[in-house]
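REVIEWER CHECKLIST
Item 1: Sequence provided? yes
Item 2: Single chain? yes
Item 3: Sequence as submitted:
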Amino acid sequence: MSPDLTQPLLLRRRLLLGAPLLACPAIRRAHAASAIPGVPTDRRIRFDVLRNGSQIGTHVLTFKLDEDHLDVGIDIHITAGIGPITLYRYDMTGTETWRNGQFAGLSTVTNDDGTRHRVDIKRTGDGLAVVSSGFPDQTLPPEMVPLTHWSEAALSAPLLSPQDGQPIQAVVSPTGSKAVALSDGKSVTAVGYKIASKTPVQDWYDPTKIWVALHADAKDGSSIDYRRS
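Item 4: Structure as written out by the authors:
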């Protein structure tokens, strides 16, 4: 959920997908998934989203590699409530694209508990052209990347929100290693990072640089956790 993905339930996705991420020779060999930090060999990352220990949704990323092209599919669905009564709903679908080791564009559609957002971003000669519902069209600096959390290597680039296309601010600090739980009851040792922003978030990455966990405290005081499944 990335709620607070620059927004809702979980967080305003403030983990940077750093410009340095794919800007290296290994990324240009995109036909080899294992050569790209953060991309699993099975090209899929799936999380159960938990609120106070109970599952309320899923967050799935799928990676499509074709030579120097990388497309990341985003599919987030979260529903929180009491019994049959829905109190909060968050859905985001979209695609993040990288070409020749460089962030090339993003297209997302989001329903943040009834508030609709649509974003289209394309790289141009002047930077990143952003068309976002509810905001004036603008061109952002070319080094910015969307905050989609999947790469540890992305923690140094300026960020923009994948929900509304607006610049976001964050201070990222390493928090050391710890064992984090997976959905199957097992655990994995992972390196953590605290992302300080309007909604503080913690992310963890395993020794192979794969995103394996997330924690955030929601605005209502509840605890939000991602469990890798």
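Item 5: Key structural point noted by reviewer: Residues 25-169 form one domain.
Item 6: Recommendation: ____
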